[in-house]
Amino acid sequence: MTDRHIAARIWPLLLVAALGLAPFTVFSNFLVDIATDAGSTDSAVGSLRGLGGVAAILVGVLCAPLIDALSRPRLIACAAAVLGVGCAISTVGSTWAWVAFCVLIGAGTAILNPAVSAQASDTFTDKGDAGRAATLVSSTMTLTAMLAAPLLAGPALWWGWRGNMVALGLAFAAGAVVFARGGGSGRAGVGVASPRTRRYPGLAAAAPLLAVSTLRTAAFMGQLAFVASLYHERFGLGPEVFAWVWSLSGLSFFLVNFGG
């Protein structure tokens, strides 16, 4: 089966996976404006993204067994609902609203990403097609990192970053309804939580890999949190122009992910 046929089968999953990256993309690209509206500094507001990482770790560890034990379409619906609530809260614009936003977006994506990947794989019985479906989900998310910034910067010229968050909130709400009703989920995706999954027996053996992954993510997330502020301070770039800088970084990330 070709990638085109696979994508045609799982396009709702690809769409919701792409949407999952958009909230933090808006947050990072419009950090300077967001901090100004919140009456705070770029560094203070940008550092809040770390809360999203902490929430993602905690929720990911606690909820990992649920990916194989519960209905994945329902998990995707719940994650989309959490992401939608986070986007809605962000429109308040206060520092505390951004605290809640970062926590909710981190928690939501920790559930959404593995659930979408697992559901995409389970849509196909052939192992090769299943693996390619999971790769398409991952590639779609990295492609979103390239395209989302300029696509979001355009509408923001008209309605600002709050308009982007409102639009994303509505999109997540629609996605939550669709997946809660079982739509867009391919064939059934409910696994069985084994004792092996519940006890995490391989974590000690995987400690070096987990450490490298943690350091890599920490460096990458730290760069994303403050790069917009840096370019604004040094080069005077607004979010509309900076979006293209973001896209170059996303393009390289996508090409390596897809080619690998």
Automatic annotation (TrEMBL):
The keyword Cell membrane does not apply. It holds the Pfam family MFS_1. Gene3D superfamilies: MFS general substrate transporter like domains (1.20.1250.20). It comes from the Bacteria. One of its GO terms (molecular function) is transmembrane transporter activity. Coiled coil: none annotated. This is MFS transporter. It comes from Corynebacterium heidelbergense.
